[in-house]
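A common beginner's mistake is to predict each chain separately and then try to dock the pieces by hand. The better habit, illustrated here, is to supply every component at once so that their relative placement is modeled jointly.
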Amino acid sequence: MLNDSLKQLAKRLAEKEVSSVELTTEFLKRINQLNPKYNAFITVDDEKSLEQARAADRKIAAGEAGPLTGIPVAQKDIFCTQGWLTTCGSKMLSNFVSPYDAGVIERFNAAGAVNVGKTNMDEFAMGSSNENSYYGPVKNPWGINAVPGGSSGGSACAVAARMAPAATGTDTGGSIRQPAAFCGISGIKPTYGTVSRYGMIAFASSLDQGGPMAKSAEDLALMLNVMTGFDARDSTSLQREAEDYTRDLEKPLLGLRIGLPKEYFAEGMHSDVEKAIEQALDEYRRLGAETLEVSLPNSPLSIPVYYVLAPAEASSNLSRFDGVRYGYRTEYYEDLRDMYRKTRGEGFGPEVKRRILIGTYVLSHGYYDAYYIQAQKVRRLIAQDFKQAFTQCDVIMGPTAPSVAFDLGEKSSDPVQMYLSDIYTSAASLAGLPGMSVPVGFGEKNRPVGLHIIGNYFSEASMLNAAHQYQQVTDWHQKMPGL
Ligand code: GLN
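With all components supplied together, the output reads:
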């Protein structure tokens, strides 16, 4: 059962071969057995999960089941979950039991899915290795010394180690795609505005987007069906008609035009990654797709632009953590200013502080035009590059990350090296485009390689189609690490 697709699990539930309580118990057992070693979950609450499973069983018995009813899903600890500790990986929220549900959580609840725990993450989703979590690093199931990627590393690890059939993540510059690649699973960040940000703790609001992480493209499509939809409580939520993301899965790929950005295939990509990517592209050509060169001339600027804009927004978003209304408050202080200072000094970790400093700097009077406004202009140019490329091709492909998972500690003392992990993913975030990662083989030290697929706005169904057809003729997505 551990390696079953969501569809297979739903079938077992529908045929009463297994109940949701049994299924949930099975996954909770695995979580409780493996979590001490992998640290993928910050909070596990068997009783709360089983209560949801019992409700799901009643729904199934009443003939009211949907595709995810009774299915265990792990939730990234960035989503406010009523009655659950919701920490965002930070000491600042280490005592925060959410009084309400995020829009995404509401949707999973309405679908009858079972929350099997809150997953570990980089503090406030800032990071590419999960080493920035107040709760300690997550380990990669493909190598105990390797990082799982970040910031959704706990979710990626949970799915890769089969502690949950699927999970949620969030992606601001690559946080769904890069950990999916590092852990050998599939993940998609949909078009900005399709998944509600209500109750999703804000990092950089113009970039943050929730999305699913699972074993296969088909599973991602089923998850997206639940996760997407208009939410009036999120001012950037898009009012669109509901889509069925599974609708195009079975379409043949004949004639699909795959654009290969020449900037992505230049220097920077490790040779083991390149080999796996080339093999995947060969597979696509066998499936009837054609590949052509495209250019994204401004893409080398995406990391510098991201690291002006994301910290700017973060410095503003994180000003709410002041020790007054909720979250951590320092124990001893003299007056209000001292309370603010000590609370924020003790509550935030070093990377978060670095971002607040950078963000405050680029937004300050003397530097606003030189950095923030300039970065916004280049952001527009990056989006225009994609617009141009999509006149020539249907999807863009390349590597998700320049290397396979690196070792724990390897980059933690060099922030710029760490930031470069998102060299291929941040451009799509800046443009608001959907991006996904699918496993396409293994590189150095038997660590997974992810293929990055970028699509045009609202082309998720075609991207999932491209990924699904590849997964019909390969089995990388079914490989399980020996734990
Ligand atoms: N690694 C990037 C950062 O540290 C992206 C994180 C994310 O997408 N949340 O900001």
